[in-house]
Amino acid sequence: MKIGNFDLTKDATFIIAELSANHGGKIEIAKETIKAAKEIGANCIKLQTYTADTLTLDCDNDDFIIKGGTLWDNQKLYDLYKEAYLPWEWHEELFAYARSINIDIFSSPFDKSAVDFLEQFNPSAYKIASFEITDYELIRYTASKMKPIIISTGIATIEEIQDAVDICRSVGNNDIVLLKCTSAYPAPLEDANLATIPNLAQTFGVISGFSDHTLGVNAPVVAVTLGAKVIEKHFILDKSIGGADADFSMDKEEFSNMIKAIRDVEKLIGTISYNEDVTKIKGREFSRSLYVSSDIKKGELFSEANIKSVRPAYGLHPKYLNNIIGKVAKKDYEFGTPIALEDIKGN
Question: Which of 212, 249, 282, 299 is the most buried (most CB within 10 A)?
Answer without folding.
Answer: 212
